[in-house]
Amino acid sequence: MSFRIKLLLGMVLLPTICLLVFLSLSVVTFVDDKKAFVYEWNQLQSRYIASQIDLNLMRMKNDPQEALFVAHVDTAMNNVLDVAGRVQKDEAISIIKTYAAAMCSGLRSITWIEIEGRMVYTYCHKLKNSYELFAFDRSRLETYFAERGISENILVGYDGYVIAGPPGFPIGRELMSIVGNGVKEIFDNSFEKGRVEIKDKRDGETYLLNFYRIPNESLLIISMTARSAPERAAYFFVYRGIIFAAALMLITIMAALFASGALIRSVVRLRNAMQNFGAGQMDVHLEVGSKDEVGQLAGLFNDMVTHIKQLMSVHEEKARIDAEMVLASDLQRKFFPLDIYSNSRYQFAGFYEPASQCGGDWWTYVETEDHFIVCICDVTGHGLQSALITSAACAVVASFKSNLQGPAQLMQAMNRAVFETSRGALNMTCLIAAFNKRDNTMTYCNASHEPTYYFTPRDGMKRTDINVFEAVNGPRLGESLDAEFTETSLSFEAGSVFLFYSDGLKDIVNSENKAFEERRILKVLTKVTNDSFAADAILNMAKKDTNEWRGQSGLIDDLSYFIVKHNINGPSH
After folding, report:
1. CATH number at residue 366
2. What DSSP character marks residue 84?
3. Does residue 283 or residue 8 have the better pLDDT?
4. Is residue 121 within 8 Å of residue 112, measured between CB atoms?
5. What tens digit of pLDDT does each residue of 18-32 get?
Protein backbone atom coordinates (compact mmCIF):
# COMPACT_ATOMS: atom_id res chain seq x y z
CA MET A 1 0.00 0.00 0.00
CA SER A 2 1.46 3.32 -1.09
CA PHE A 3 2.14 6.14 1.30
CA ARG A 4 -0.44 8.32 -0.43
CA ILE A 5 -3.21 5.75 0.08
CA LYS A 6 -2.23 5.37 3.72
CA LEU A 7 -2.25 9.15 4.11
CA LEU A 8 -5.65 9.45 2.45
CA LEU A 9 -7.07 6.65 4.57
CA GLY A 10 -5.75 8.32 7.69
CA MET A 11 -7.14 11.71 6.70
CA VAL A 12 -10.55 10.31 5.71
CA LEU A 13 -11.17 7.36 8.00
CA LEU A 14 -10.36 9.09 11.27
CA PRO A 15 -12.79 12.02 10.75
CA THR A 16 -15.38 9.59 9.38
CA ILE A 17 -15.15 7.28 12.38
CA CYS A 18 -15.33 10.26 14.73
CA LEU A 19 -18.34 11.61 12.82
CA LEU A 20 -20.12 8.23 12.90
CA VAL A 21 -19.50 7.88 16.63
CA PHE A 22 -20.77 11.42 17.14
CA LEU A 23 -23.79 10.70 14.94
CA SER A 24 -24.58 7.50 16.88
CA LEU A 25 -24.36 9.29 20.21
CA SER A 26 -26.41 12.16 18.81
CA VAL A 27 -29.17 9.78 17.62
CA VAL A 28 -29.36 8.12 21.03
CA THR A 29 -29.46 11.50 22.73
CA PHE A 30 -31.98 12.80 20.19
CA VAL A 31 -34.31 9.82 20.72
CA ASP A 32 -34.10 10.20 24.51
CA ASP A 33 -34.69 13.94 24.27
CA LYS A 34 -37.57 13.36 21.84
CA LYS A 35 -39.19 10.92 24.26
CA ALA A 36 -38.80 13.43 27.07
CA PHE A 37 -40.22 16.14 24.82
CA VAL A 38 -43.21 13.95 23.89
CA TYR A 39 -43.86 13.24 27.57
CA GLU A 40 -43.73 16.92 28.50
CA TRP A 41 -45.82 17.88 25.47
CA ASN A 42 -48.47 15.28 26.31
CA GLN A 43 -48.62 16.53 29.87
CA LEU A 44 -49.12 20.09 28.68
CA GLN A 45 -51.73 18.95 26.17
CA SER A 46 -53.58 17.00 28.87
CA ARG A 47 -53.64 20.04 31.13
CA TYR A 48 -54.89 22.14 28.26
CA ILE A 49 -57.72 19.66 27.44
CA ALA A 50 -58.67 19.52 31.13
CA SER A 51 -58.79 23.31 31.34
CA GLN A 52 -60.93 23.47 28.19
CA ILE A 53 -63.37 20.91 29.59
CA ASP A 54 -63.65 22.96 32.81
CA LEU A 55 -64.14 26.12 30.74
CA ASN A 56 -66.97 24.55 28.69
CA LEU A 57 -68.70 23.25 31.81
CA MET A 58 -68.46 26.72 33.34
CA ARG A 59 -69.95 28.28 30.21
CA MET A 60 -72.84 25.82 30.19
CA LYS A 61 -73.50 26.45 33.89
CA ASN A 62 -73.53 30.18 33.40
CA ASP A 63 -75.48 30.02 30.14
CA PRO A 64 -77.75 26.95 29.95
CA GLN A 65 -78.36 27.72 26.26
CA GLU A 66 -74.85 26.51 25.61
CA ALA A 67 -76.02 23.00 26.66
CA LEU A 68 -78.90 20.73 25.76
CA PHE A 69 -80.06 21.22 29.33
CA VAL A 70 -78.76 22.13 32.78
CA ALA A 71 -80.71 20.73 35.74
CA HIS A 72 -80.56 20.15 39.48
CA VAL A 73 -81.83 16.87 40.97
CA ASP A 74 -82.26 15.88 44.60
CA THR A 75 -79.83 13.42 46.07
CA ALA A 76 -82.37 10.60 45.80
CA MET A 77 -82.58 11.17 42.06
CA ASN A 78 -86.41 11.30 42.28
CA ASN A 79 -87.24 14.97 41.86
CA VAL A 80 -85.97 17.45 39.27
CA LEU A 81 -85.57 20.69 41.13
CA ASP A 82 -85.09 22.91 38.08
CA VAL A 83 -84.11 22.58 34.45
CA ALA A 84 -83.12 24.96 31.64
CA GLY A 85 -81.54 24.64 28.19
CA ARG A 86 -82.15 24.25 24.49
CA VAL A 87 -84.42 21.18 24.76
CA GLN A 88 -87.98 21.33 26.04
CA LYS A 89 -88.38 21.08 29.79
CA ASP A 90 -90.56 17.99 29.64
CA GLU A 91 -88.08 16.23 27.35
CA ALA A 92 -85.23 17.15 29.66
CA ILE A 93 -87.11 15.88 32.73
CA SER A 94 -87.89 12.66 30.90
CA ILE A 95 -84.25 12.15 30.00
CA ILE A 96 -83.13 12.89 33.55
CA LYS A 97 -85.54 10.46 35.13
CA THR A 98 -84.56 7.76 32.66
CA TYR A 99 -80.78 8.14 32.79
CA ALA A 100 -80.11 9.91 36.11
CA ALA A 101 -78.58 6.82 37.74
CA ALA A 102 -76.24 6.21 34.80
CA MET A 103 -75.32 9.87 34.59
CA CYS A 104 -74.18 9.99 38.23
CA SER A 105 -72.57 6.56 38.70
CA GLY A 106 -69.75 8.11 40.74
CA LEU A 107 -67.00 6.40 38.71
CA ARG A 108 -66.88 9.14 36.11
CA SER A 109 -68.28 12.69 36.10
CA ILE A 110 -68.77 12.72 32.32
CA THR A 111 -70.53 9.88 30.56
CA TRP A 112 -72.48 9.31 27.39
CA ILE A 113 -76.03 8.27 26.73
CA GLU A 114 -77.85 7.46 23.55
CA ILE A 115 -81.17 9.25 23.07
CA GLU A 116 -83.18 8.15 20.07
CA GLY A 117 -80.04 7.06 18.26
CA ARG A 118 -78.17 10.21 19.16
CA MET A 119 -75.03 10.07 21.34
CA VAL A 120 -74.79 12.89 23.85
CA TYR A 121 -72.46 13.57 26.76
CA THR A 122 -73.61 14.26 30.27
CA TYR A 123 -71.89 15.76 33.27
CA CYS A 124 -72.81 15.10 36.91
CA HIS A 125 -71.49 17.15 39.79
CA LYS A 126 -72.60 16.62 43.39
CA LEU A 127 -73.51 19.70 45.34
CA LYS A 128 -74.37 19.93 49.03
CA ASN A 129 -78.02 18.78 48.83
CA SER A 130 -78.37 18.01 45.13
CA TYR A 131 -76.77 16.97 41.90
CA GLU A 132 -76.01 19.33 39.05
CA LEU A 133 -76.54 17.65 35.64
CA PHE A 134 -75.44 18.86 32.21
CA ALA A 135 -76.15 17.35 28.81
CA PHE A 136 -74.30 18.62 25.72
CA ASP A 137 -73.41 17.67 22.15
CA ARG A 138 -70.51 15.35 21.40
CA SER A 139 -68.85 18.08 19.34
CA ARG A 140 -68.16 20.17 22.45
CA LEU A 141 -65.92 17.42 23.87
CA GLU A 142 -64.67 15.41 20.96
CA THR A 143 -63.19 18.46 19.23
CA TYR A 144 -60.31 18.24 21.73
CA PHE A 145 -59.66 14.58 20.92
CA ALA A 146 -60.23 14.65 17.19
CA GLU A 147 -56.82 16.02 16.15
CA ARG A 148 -54.26 13.33 15.42
CA GLY A 149 -50.59 14.07 15.79
CA ILE A 150 -47.93 11.71 16.98
CA SER A 151 -50.16 11.04 20.01
CA GLU A 152 -53.72 9.81 20.56
CA ASN A 153 -55.60 11.66 23.35
CA ILE A 154 -58.28 9.63 25.18
CA LEU A 155 -60.71 10.63 27.94
CA VAL A 156 -61.30 7.75 30.37
CA GLY A 157 -63.35 7.45 33.54
CA TYR A 158 -62.10 5.95 36.77
CA ASP A 159 -63.99 2.77 35.85
CA GLY A 160 -61.69 2.36 32.88
CA TYR A 161 -64.27 3.00 30.16
CA VAL A 162 -63.44 5.23 27.22
CA ILE A 163 -65.52 8.43 27.17
CA ALA A 164 -63.92 10.25 24.21
CA GLY A 165 -61.12 9.63 21.79
CA PRO A 166 -59.87 10.27 18.27
CA PRO A 167 -61.97 9.25 15.26
CA GLY A 168 -62.21 5.48 14.94
CA PHE A 169 -61.27 4.82 18.55
CA PRO A 170 -63.92 2.62 20.28
CA ILE A 171 -66.10 4.74 22.61
CA GLY A 172 -67.89 3.15 25.55
CA ARG A 173 -65.56 0.18 25.82
CA GLU A 174 -63.18 -0.63 28.61
CA LEU A 175 -59.68 0.59 27.73
CA MET A 176 -58.05 -2.66 28.86
CA SER A 177 -60.20 -4.61 26.40
CA ILE A 178 -58.93 -2.37 23.59
CA VAL A 179 -55.19 -2.03 24.21
CA GLY A 180 -54.47 -4.73 26.79
CA ASN A 181 -53.85 -5.19 30.49
CA GLY A 182 -50.81 -2.91 30.50
CA VAL A 183 -53.01 0.06 31.38
CA LYS A 184 -54.19 -1.57 34.61
CA GLU A 185 -51.27 0.09 36.43
CA ILE A 186 -52.82 3.51 35.72
CA PHE A 187 -56.03 2.67 37.56
CA ASP A 188 -54.31 0.83 40.42
CA ASN A 189 -52.62 3.96 41.79
CA SER A 190 -53.68 7.46 42.69
CA PHE A 191 -50.84 9.42 41.09
CA GLU A 192 -51.91 12.73 39.59
CA LYS A 193 -49.78 12.09 36.50
CA GLY A 194 -47.34 9.56 35.23
CA ARG A 195 -46.07 7.45 32.36
CA VAL A 196 -46.22 3.75 31.58
CA GLU A 197 -45.09 1.65 28.66
CA ILE A 198 -47.43 -0.95 27.17
CA LYS A 199 -47.63 -3.25 24.19
CA ASP A 200 -50.87 -2.52 22.29
CA LYS A 201 -52.61 -5.74 21.44
CA ARG A 202 -54.21 -4.12 18.40
CA ASP A 203 -51.00 -3.89 16.38
CA GLY A 204 -48.36 -5.32 18.73
CA GLU A 205 -46.50 -2.02 18.83
CA THR A 206 -45.08 -0.58 22.01
CA TYR A 207 -46.69 2.67 23.21
CA LEU A 208 -45.77 5.29 25.76
CA LEU A 209 -48.85 6.24 27.81
CA ASN A 210 -48.91 9.56 29.65
CA PHE A 211 -51.86 10.05 32.00
CA TYR A 212 -53.21 13.07 33.84
CA ARG A 213 -56.04 13.07 36.43
CA ILE A 214 -58.37 16.03 36.11
CA PRO A 215 -58.62 17.63 39.59
CA ASN A 216 -61.99 17.14 41.35
CA GLU A 217 -63.27 14.98 38.51
CA SER A 218 -63.35 11.21 38.12
CA LEU A 219 -61.61 11.54 34.78
CA LEU A 220 -58.21 10.79 33.26
CA ILE A 221 -56.74 12.11 30.06
CA ILE A 222 -54.44 9.51 28.50
CA SER A 223 -52.03 10.29 25.65
CA MET A 224 -50.79 7.28 23.67
CA THR A 225 -47.62 7.75 21.63
CA ALA A 226 -46.03 4.98 19.61
CA ARG A 227 -42.51 4.37 20.85
CA SER A 228 -41.36 4.31 17.26
CA ALA A 229 -42.55 7.90 16.73
CA PRO A 230 -39.44 9.52 18.29
CA GLU A 231 -37.32 6.94 16.49
CA ARG A 232 -39.00 7.81 13.19
CA ALA A 233 -38.17 11.44 13.89
CA ALA A 234 -34.62 10.32 14.56
CA TYR A 235 -34.52 8.61 11.16
CA PHE A 236 -34.90 11.98 9.52
CA PHE A 237 -32.13 13.29 11.75
CA VAL A 238 -29.95 10.33 10.80
CA TYR A 239 -30.74 10.83 7.12
CA ARG A 240 -29.65 14.45 7.32
CA GLY A 241 -26.61 13.38 9.32
CA ILE A 242 -25.65 10.82 6.69
CA ILE A 243 -25.99 13.42 3.96
CA PHE A 244 -23.86 15.82 6.01
CA ALA A 245 -21.29 13.07 6.68
CA ALA A 246 -21.15 12.16 3.00
CA ALA A 247 -20.66 15.80 2.06
CA LEU A 248 -18.00 16.17 4.73
CA MET A 249 -16.24 13.02 3.52
CA LEU A 250 -16.30 14.32 -0.05
CA ILE A 251 -14.86 17.65 1.04
CA THR A 252 -12.27 15.83 3.19
CA ILE A 253 -11.25 13.57 0.30
CA MET A 254 -10.88 16.54 -2.03
CA ALA A 255 -8.88 18.43 0.57
CA ALA A 256 -6.79 15.32 1.29
CA LEU A 257 -6.10 14.81 -2.41
CA PHE A 258 -5.05 18.42 -2.75
CA ALA A 259 -2.91 18.40 0.39
CA SER A 260 -1.40 14.97 -0.18
CA GLY A 261 -0.53 15.76 -3.79
CA ALA A 262 2.00 18.42 -2.81
CA LEU A 263 3.21 16.34 0.13
CA ILE A 264 3.62 13.18 -1.94
CA ARG A 265 5.47 15.07 -4.68
CA SER A 266 7.89 16.41 -2.08
CA VAL A 267 8.32 12.97 -0.51
CA VAL A 268 8.88 11.38 -3.96
CA ARG A 269 11.54 13.99 -4.76
CA LEU A 270 13.20 13.26 -1.43
CA ARG A 271 13.03 9.50 -2.09
CA ASN A 272 14.53 9.87 -5.56
CA ALA A 273 17.27 12.12 -4.21
CA MET A 274 18.11 9.56 -1.51
CA GLN A 275 18.16 6.73 -4.07
CA ASN A 276 20.47 8.73 -6.35
CA PHE A 277 22.71 9.61 -3.44
CA GLY A 278 22.77 6.00 -2.33
CA ALA A 279 23.74 5.00 -5.88
CA GLY A 280 26.81 7.25 -5.66
CA GLN A 281 25.55 10.49 -7.20
CA MET A 282 27.25 12.93 -4.86
CA ASP A 283 25.99 16.17 -6.45
CA VAL A 284 22.37 15.60 -5.34
CA HIS A 285 20.61 18.75 -4.12
CA LEU A 286 16.97 19.35 -3.21
CA GLU A 287 15.23 22.67 -3.69
CA VAL A 288 13.68 23.84 -0.41
CA GLY A 289 10.34 25.25 -1.56
CA SER A 290 8.60 25.67 1.78
CA LYS A 291 9.25 26.28 5.45
CA ASP A 292 7.06 23.45 6.71
CA GLU A 293 8.28 20.09 8.00
CA VAL A 294 8.81 18.73 4.47
CA GLY A 295 10.87 21.78 3.56
CA GLN A 296 12.87 21.38 6.76
CA LEU A 297 13.41 17.71 5.89
CA ALA A 298 14.72 18.69 2.45
CA GLY A 299 17.07 21.19 4.09
CA LEU A 300 18.29 18.56 6.52
CA PHE A 301 18.87 16.18 3.60
CA ASN A 302 21.00 18.80 1.86
CA ASP A 303 22.95 19.36 5.07
CA MET A 304 23.40 15.61 5.44
CA VAL A 305 24.74 15.33 1.88
CA THR A 306 27.16 18.19 2.54
CA HIS A 307 28.37 16.65 5.80
CA ILE A 308 28.74 13.19 4.26
CA LYS A 309 30.76 14.65 1.38
CA GLN A 310 32.95 16.43 3.91
CA LEU A 311 33.33 13.24 5.93
CA MET A 312 34.18 11.29 2.78
CA SER A 313 36.75 13.90 1.87
CA VAL A 314 38.22 13.70 5.36
CA HIS A 315 38.12 9.90 5.17
CA GLU A 316 39.85 9.91 1.82
CA GLU A 317 42.48 12.26 3.16
CA LYS A 318 42.90 10.10 6.25
CA ALA A 319 43.15 6.98 4.09
CA ARG A 320 45.81 8.69 2.00
CA ILE A 321 47.72 9.75 5.11
CA ASP A 322 47.35 6.26 6.61
CA ALA A 323 48.72 4.75 3.41
CA GLU A 324 51.63 7.19 3.51
CA MET A 325 52.16 6.40 7.19
CA VAL A 326 52.21 2.67 6.44
CA LEU A 327 54.73 3.31 3.70
CA ALA A 328 56.76 5.54 6.02
CA SER A 329 56.57 2.90 8.76
CA ASP A 330 57.81 0.23 6.39
CA LEU A 331 60.56 2.55 5.23
CA GLN A 332 61.55 3.45 8.80
CA ARG A 333 61.70 -0.22 9.74
CA LYS A 334 64.39 -0.59 7.09
CA PHE A 335 66.49 1.92 9.01
CA PHE A 336 66.92 -0.77 11.68
CA PRO A 337 69.46 -3.57 11.20
CA LEU A 338 68.75 -7.20 12.13
CA ASP A 339 67.38 -7.66 15.66
CA ILE A 340 69.93 -10.44 16.44
CA TYR A 341 73.62 -10.15 15.60
CA SER A 342 76.93 -11.49 16.92
CA ASN A 343 80.60 -11.43 16.08
CA SER A 344 83.65 -12.96 17.65
CA ARG A 345 83.54 -10.74 20.72
CA TYR A 346 79.96 -9.45 21.12
CA GLN A 347 76.31 -10.48 20.89
CA PHE A 348 73.50 -8.07 20.06
CA ALA A 349 69.68 -8.42 20.52
CA GLY A 350 67.34 -5.46 19.99
CA PHE A 351 63.62 -4.62 20.19
CA TYR A 352 61.54 -1.74 18.82
CA GLU A 353 57.82 -0.88 18.95
CA PRO A 354 56.51 2.56 17.96
CA ALA A 355 53.65 4.22 19.89
CA SER A 356 52.05 5.08 16.51
CA GLN A 357 52.68 4.00 12.94
CA CYS A 358 55.94 5.94 12.81
CA GLY A 359 58.17 6.54 15.78
CA GLY A 360 61.03 8.74 16.92
CA ASP A 361 63.20 5.96 18.42
CA TRP A 362 66.00 4.37 16.47
CA TRP A 363 68.93 2.14 17.17
CA THR A 364 71.65 0.58 15.04
CA TYR A 365 75.04 -1.08 15.22
CA VAL A 366 78.15 -0.81 13.03
CA GLU A 367 81.16 -3.09 12.96
CA THR A 368 84.63 -1.85 11.93
CA GLU A 369 87.94 -3.59 11.97
CA ASP A 370 88.68 -2.58 15.55
CA HIS A 371 85.28 -1.70 17.07
CA PHE A 372 81.67 -2.84 17.45
CA ILE A 373 79.70 0.42 17.63
CA VAL A 374 76.09 0.72 18.89
CA CYS A 375 73.85 3.78 18.77
CA ILE A 376 70.42 4.50 20.28
CA CYS A 377 68.42 7.69 19.62
CA ASP A 378 65.11 9.16 20.80
CA VAL A 379 63.50 12.15 19.05
CA THR A 380 61.16 14.27 21.15
CA GLY A 381 57.61 13.10 20.39
CA HIS A 382 56.66 10.46 17.87
CA GLY A 383 55.03 10.28 14.49
CA LEU A 384 56.08 11.13 10.96
CA GLN A 385 58.14 14.23 11.85
CA SER A 386 60.13 12.27 14.40
CA ALA A 387 60.67 9.50 11.85
CA LEU A 388 62.12 12.05 9.40
CA ILE A 389 64.65 13.15 12.03
CA THR A 390 65.71 9.53 12.62
CA SER A 391 66.23 9.17 8.86
CA ALA A 392 68.69 12.07 8.97
CA ALA A 393 70.56 10.39 11.84
CA CYS A 394 70.54 7.09 9.94
CA ALA A 395 72.07 8.79 6.88
CA VAL A 396 74.87 10.30 8.99
CA VAL A 397 75.76 6.92 10.54
CA ALA A 398 75.75 5.28 7.13
CA SER A 399 78.12 7.95 5.74
CA PHE A 400 80.62 7.46 8.60
CA LYS A 401 80.87 3.67 8.43
CA SER A 402 84.20 3.66 6.61
CA ASN A 403 85.71 6.71 8.29
CA LEU A 404 84.64 6.58 11.94
CA GLN A 405 87.20 8.08 14.31
CA GLY A 406 85.14 8.03 17.54
CA PRO A 407 81.70 8.48 19.15
CA ALA A 408 82.18 12.24 19.68
CA GLN A 409 82.97 12.82 16.00
CA LEU A 410 79.84 10.90 14.97
CA MET A 411 77.71 12.73 17.56
CA GLN A 412 78.94 16.09 16.20
CA ALA A 413 77.92 15.16 12.66
CA MET A 414 74.52 13.86 13.79
CA ASN A 415 73.87 17.11 15.71
CA ARG A 416 74.50 19.13 12.54
CA ALA A 417 72.16 16.93 10.50
CA VAL A 418 69.36 17.05 13.11
CA PHE A 419 69.64 20.84 13.49
CA GLU A 420 69.57 21.49 9.78
CA THR A 421 66.65 19.12 9.30
CA SER A 422 64.39 20.41 12.10
CA ARG A 423 65.72 23.97 12.41
CA GLY A 424 65.59 23.57 16.17
CA ALA A 425 61.92 22.53 16.24
CA LEU A 426 62.75 18.95 17.26
CA ASN A 427 65.58 17.57 19.38
CA MET A 428 67.07 14.14 19.76
CA THR A 429 68.74 12.36 22.66
CA CYS A 430 71.43 9.93 21.64
CA LEU A 431 74.03 7.57 23.10
CA ILE A 432 76.89 6.10 21.02
CA ALA A 433 79.16 3.38 22.42
CA ALA A 434 82.21 1.88 20.67
CA PHE A 435 83.29 -1.56 22.04
CA ASN A 436 86.96 -2.40 21.42
CA LYS A 437 87.44 -5.82 19.88
CA ARG A 438 90.97 -6.23 21.21
CA ASP A 439 90.36 -5.55 24.88
CA ASN A 440 87.53 -5.13 27.38
CA THR A 441 87.10 -1.39 26.96
CA MET A 442 84.33 0.82 25.66
CA THR A 443 84.29 4.49 24.60
CA TYR A 444 80.97 6.32 24.67
CA CYS A 445 79.37 9.72 24.13
CA ASN A 446 75.99 10.73 25.55
CA ALA A 447 73.67 13.50 24.36
CA SER A 448 71.17 13.68 27.27
CA HIS A 449 70.02 10.07 26.71
CA GLU A 450 68.97 7.57 29.39
CA PRO A 451 72.00 6.02 31.20
CA THR A 452 73.15 2.51 30.31
CA TYR A 453 73.18 -0.38 32.81
CA TYR A 454 75.93 -2.98 32.75
CA PHE A 455 76.91 -5.88 34.99
CA THR A 456 78.76 -9.18 35.08
CA PRO A 457 76.38 -12.15 35.60
CA ARG A 458 76.93 -14.15 38.81
CA ASP A 459 74.94 -16.19 41.31
CA GLY A 460 72.95 -14.20 43.82
CA MET A 461 72.71 -11.09 41.66
CA LYS A 462 71.61 -7.97 43.50
CA ARG A 463 70.61 -4.56 42.29
CA THR A 464 73.82 -3.18 43.79
CA ASP A 465 75.79 -5.40 41.39
CA ILE A 466 74.42 -3.44 38.44
CA ASN A 467 76.49 -0.45 37.30
CA VAL A 468 75.52 2.60 35.27
CA PHE A 469 77.75 4.79 33.14
CA GLU A 470 76.77 8.43 32.84
CA ALA A 471 80.09 10.21 33.35
CA VAL A 472 79.57 12.41 30.29
CA ASN A 473 76.23 13.91 29.29
CA GLY A 474 76.09 16.55 26.57
CA PRO A 475 73.17 18.59 25.20
CA ARG A 476 70.45 17.09 23.04
CA LEU A 477 71.08 16.94 19.32
CA GLY A 478 69.53 19.75 17.32
CA GLU A 479 69.42 22.31 20.13
CA SER A 480 72.45 24.22 18.88
CA LEU A 481 74.58 23.98 15.78
CA ASP A 482 77.69 24.83 17.83
CA ALA A 483 77.13 22.26 20.57
CA GLU A 484 80.21 20.29 21.63
CA PHE A 485 80.31 16.67 22.76
CA THR A 486 82.94 14.75 24.71
CA GLU A 487 83.59 11.07 25.04
CA THR A 488 85.06 8.86 27.77
CA SER A 489 86.16 5.25 28.14
CA LEU A 490 85.61 2.54 30.70
CA SER A 491 86.80 -1.03 31.25
CA PHE A 492 84.53 -3.97 32.02
CA GLU A 493 84.92 -7.61 32.95
CA ALA A 494 84.70 -10.39 30.46
CA GLY A 495 81.13 -11.62 29.90
CA SER A 496 79.56 -8.30 30.90
CA VAL A 497 76.02 -7.49 29.80
CA PHE A 498 74.87 -3.98 28.72
CA LEU A 499 71.31 -2.66 28.53
CA PHE A 500 70.66 0.36 26.28
CA TYR A 501 67.10 1.76 26.27
CA SER A 502 64.96 4.81 25.56
CA ASP A 503 62.72 6.53 28.13
CA GLY A 504 59.71 4.67 26.70
CA LEU A 505 60.75 1.63 28.76
CA LYS A 506 60.16 3.46 32.04
CA ASP A 507 56.90 4.96 30.75
CA ILE A 508 55.16 1.62 30.17
CA VAL A 509 51.96 1.64 32.25
CA ASN A 510 49.64 -1.14 33.38
CA SER A 511 45.82 -1.20 33.65
CA GLU A 512 46.08 0.80 36.89
CA ASN A 513 48.14 3.48 35.10
CA LYS A 514 51.28 2.64 37.11
CA ALA A 515 54.65 3.07 35.35
CA PHE A 516 57.23 0.32 34.89
CA GLU A 517 59.98 2.50 36.48
CA GLU A 518 63.68 1.88 36.98
CA ARG A 519 63.43 -0.62 39.86
CA ARG A 520 61.55 -3.08 37.69
CA ILE A 521 64.20 -2.71 34.98
CA LEU A 522 66.86 -3.65 37.54
CA LYS A 523 64.69 -6.54 38.76
CA VAL A 524 64.72 -8.00 35.24
CA LEU A 525 68.54 -7.75 35.04
CA THR A 526 69.07 -9.52 38.38
CA LYS A 527 67.57 -12.66 36.83
CA VAL A 528 70.72 -13.05 34.68
CA THR A 529 72.78 -15.14 37.12
CA ASN A 530 75.39 -16.76 34.89
CA ASP A 531 77.20 -16.46 31.59
CA SER A 532 74.99 -19.05 29.87
CA PHE A 533 72.31 -16.42 29.09
CA ALA A 534 72.70 -15.22 25.50
CA ALA A 535 71.77 -11.68 24.50
CA ASP A 536 68.52 -12.75 22.81
CA ALA A 537 67.51 -14.80 25.89
CA ILE A 538 68.04 -11.80 28.15
CA LEU A 539 66.05 -9.65 25.70
CA ASN A 540 63.18 -12.16 25.74
CA MET A 541 63.15 -12.11 29.54
CA ALA A 542 62.82 -8.32 29.44
CA LYS A 543 60.06 -8.50 26.80
CA LYS A 544 58.13 -11.08 28.86
CA ASP A 545 58.21 -8.94 32.03
CA THR A 546 57.27 -5.73 30.22
CA ASN A 547 54.40 -7.43 28.35
CA GLU A 548 53.02 -8.92 31.55
CA TRP A 549 53.15 -5.52 33.21
CA ARG A 550 51.62 -3.76 30.24
CA GLY A 551 48.76 -6.18 29.57
CA GLN A 552 46.34 -4.64 27.06
CA SER A 553 47.49 -1.07 27.70
CA GLY A 554 48.82 0.94 24.80
CA LEU A 555 52.20 2.64 24.67
CA ILE A 556 52.60 6.22 25.82
CA ASP A 557 55.94 6.63 24.05
CA ASP A 558 57.99 4.69 21.53
CA LEU A 559 59.66 1.66 23.10
CA SER A 560 63.18 0.56 22.13
CA TYR A 561 65.98 -1.25 23.94
CA PHE A 562 68.75 -3.70 23.16
CA ILE A 563 71.21 -5.99 24.91
CA VAL A 564 74.95 -6.16 24.18
CA LYS A 565 76.84 -9.07 25.74
CA HIS A 566 80.59 -9.60 25.73
CA ASN A 567 81.67 -13.12 24.79
CA ILE A 568 84.15 -14.69 27.19
CA ASN A 569 85.29 -17.51 24.92
CA GLY A 570 84.73 -16.16 21.46
CA PRO A 571 81.55 -16.17 19.38
CA SER A 572 78.37 -17.82 20.65
CA HIS A 573 76.54 -18.13 17.32
Report:
1. 3.60.40.10
2. E
3. 283
4. yes
5. 777 777 777 777 777
